[in-house]
Predict the 3D structure of the following.
Amino acid sequence: MKSPYSIPIRMRRLRRTDGIRSMLQETHLRAASLIAPIFVKDGLKEPEPVASMPEVYRYNPEQLIDHCRSLRDVGIQAVALFPCNPPELKDPFGSAALDSQGLIARAVGLLKKALPEMTIIVDVALDPFTSHGHDGVLKEDGMDVDNDRTVHVLAQMARMLADAGADWVAPSDMMDGRVAAIREVLDQNGHTEVSILSYSAKFNSAYYGPFRDAVGSQSAAGKNYLNKATYQLQPSNPREALRDALLDETEGADMLMVKPAGPYLDIITRLRERSDRPIAAYQVSGEYAQIHAAAMQGWLDLKRTRDESLMAIARSGADMILTYFAGNVAAELAKGSQISG
Ligand code: PBG
C-alpha cells in the first residue's frame, strides 16, 4: 500500500530481520571481558550452595580448581577469589588475613600451578577475617575503622597474596591512601608485575547483602546493621565518586572499578570520559539475586533480564564486568549463542 505520509527516514528499516539486527549490534559481550567472582571455603565435601544466590556455590580449594577449569574451557580469563572463614578464625584485627598458609594463599598457590594462564584476582580487605565484619581494624573506642592502621595491614596482605601467586590485587576497602601504600610495598618486595585493580568508586550499597551472607561478614556483625558509611561512598554523590576514583589513578592503580554496576551506570560513563585506565564494573550479589528472585516468581525472564543487565553495563563503558553470571554467559557464547540483551 502506498503510504499517505512522507516519512523519508525510517528507523525500522534497520530492525527488520534477525540478520540485520545482528550485523548492526553496537555492543558485544565477550567471555574474555567477564570476570567470575568465586567463594572459597575450607572443609567442604561438596560445593556448598549460597542460599541467597541461586546457582552460586562455595568451593574448597580442590573443587575450585575443577570449577576454574570449566570456566577456562568456555573462555573465562580471570577469577576473583573471596574467602568464607569460620568464626573461630576471626578476631577484631583480622589477623588471619596475613596468614601465608591461610585459605586464599593456599587456593591461589594450587590454582596458579593447575592453571598458570588464568589471571587470579584476590580481594584485599579485612571483612572476611574480622569478628565485627568491618573491612579494617577499629579505633580504640571501637566506633570507626582506623584508616592508617588498616592501610598498613592491607599493604602486608597484598604482599602476602602476591607472594602466593596472585596476578592482580583488588583493594575493596575504600580506605584513603591504600593504593599508594600497596604499590610501594609490592614494588619493594619484587612484585612490580602484580597489578592493582582498585575498587575505586565503591558505594555504601544495600546490594551487598547476599555477599555478606556468602562470606559470613554479616553473621560476624550479628544483629547489628553493618554500617560502612564512613568509608564507602554515599549513593547520592557522583562528584565525590569521580574524585575518589581519579585519586586512585594518581596513586598508581592500574585499573579502576565501579561497584555496584547497574545502579551506577552514570558513574561508569563519566569515569570512562575522565580516565584512560581500563574500567571494571562489578555486578554485585544483590543485582544477581534480584534477577533470580523475580525469575523464580515467574515475574521476569531470567536469561533476557540477565543479558539486558550485562549489556547495559557494557554499553555504559566498562571494559570488564565482574558478574556471578560469568560462567553461564561464557558457556552460551562458547556454544555460539547470540547474547544481545
Ligand atoms: C568487602 C566486599 C564486598 C563485596 C566485595 N568485597 C561487600 C561489602 O563491602 O560488604 C561485595 C560483592 C557483592 O555484593 O557481590 N570488602
Notes: The pocket of PBG is lined by residues 123, 125, 127, 135, 172-173, 208, 211-212, 217, 228, 284-285 (CB under 6 Å).
